[in-house]
Design brief:
The protein is built from 2 helices and 11 strands, in the order E-E-H-E-E-E-E-E-E-E-E-H-E. With 188 residues, it is mainly beta. The strands form 2 sheets. It has an 8-stranded antiparallel barrel. Strands 1-2 form a two-stranded antiparallel ribbon.
């Protein structure tokens, strides 16, 4: 078994070892995301949502330890096996080293679904400032506990409104928000 470490270690079955290599990458350009998988692999698809996060201390030009907290909503979700899953709200926590030039902090999203169930999703990293030339990125992770446990998580973020390097130079990036979508896949 391959093992990845976020806040805690988790295993990925051998049948998805090729996917494990992708999970080691913190941020993947949306244009480089995997081909669309057949619908039977999709556990839930949330096509619309948003999130806001705060950084303490603010992200600056030089790398330093930063804590991330935030909230978000998935406003339009579809679980083919359970029509009771229509939306979800989540909290974000994470910490790591970040700067304006390289800001990718592992985070944990705790999602409460519309039926009251929960999923804890561990993301390898996220973009907190806009990478040059990119307006959309894809984050990869895994549902570590709760509903959809062991599913692969793919979160797409629209970074067109995320603060850039200029704000970083003028006092630091203290917060950011983005439009998002989420897909949870079962590959085995």
């Amino acid at each position: 078994m391959n093992r990845l470490s976020l806040k805690s270690s988790f295993s990925v079955l051998n049948c998805v070892s090729g996917i494990a290599a992708m999970l080691a990458s913190a941020v993947v350009p949306a244009t480089a995301s995997a081909q669309v998988l057949p619908p039977e692999f999709t556990l839930v698809e949330c096509s619309q949502g948003n999130q806001s996060q705060k950084y303490s201390p603010a992200i600056s030009l030089f790398a330093r330890a930063t804590n991330v907290t935030g909230t978000g909503q998935f406003t339009s979700c579809l679980d083919p096996a359970d029509p009771g899953i229509a939306f979800g709200a989540f909290t974000i926590t994470g910490n790591g080293t970040a700067s304006c030039l390289l800001a990718s902090v592992p985070t944990q999203d705790t999602v409460t679904w519309s039926d009251g169930s929960q999923s804890i999703i561990e993301f390898v990293g996220g973009a907190d400032v806009r990478p040059p030339g990119m307006t959309t990125i894809t984050l990869l992770g895994r549902v570590s506990t709760g509903r959809y446990e062991d599913a692969i998580a793919i979160k797409t973020m629209d970074l067109s409104s995320v603060p850039g390097v200029t704000q970083c130079l003028l006092g630091g990036v203290r917060s950011a928000s983005a439009n998002i979508s989420l897909t949870l896949l079962r590959l085995f």
